[in-house]
Design brief:
Number of strands: 0
Helix content: 55-70%
Oligomer: single chain
Strand content: under 5%
Number of helices: 4
Distance between the termini: 52 Å
Radius of gyration: 19 Å
Number of domains: 2
Length: 89
């Protein structure tokens, strides 16, 4: 009985993965990101380039303690840092 339940659970997980991959390939990524709570508005700065954003984001990740502090605290610290560098959502 336990093996049958474990096998069924693996099949359900594989099916779920296939569904997410198919939806993602069909252009439903923003929907999935919103569903999973990871969608956010893009960050902009007047005259800001992608390179500048990436550089500032990396520096702010270090300053915010991403991977060191709890996720919520690190996220708030990263956002404050980005705002301090002139980026807005």
């Amino acid at each position: 009985m336990a093996r049958a339940l474990a096998a069924r659970g693996r099949i359900e997980m594989r099916l779920l993965l296939v569904v997410f991959l198919l939806l993602g390939s069909l252009g439903c990524v923003p929907f999935l990101q919103g569903l999973l709570g990871i969608y956010s508005k893009p960050w902009t700065r007047a005259g800001g380039t992608q390179y500048e954003f990436d550089s500032d984001s990396a520096a702010c990740r270090n300053d915010a303690g991403v991977g060191i502090f709890p996720r919520d605290l690190a996220q708030r610290r990263w956002e404050d840092c980005m705002i301090g560098r002139g980026w807005r959502q």
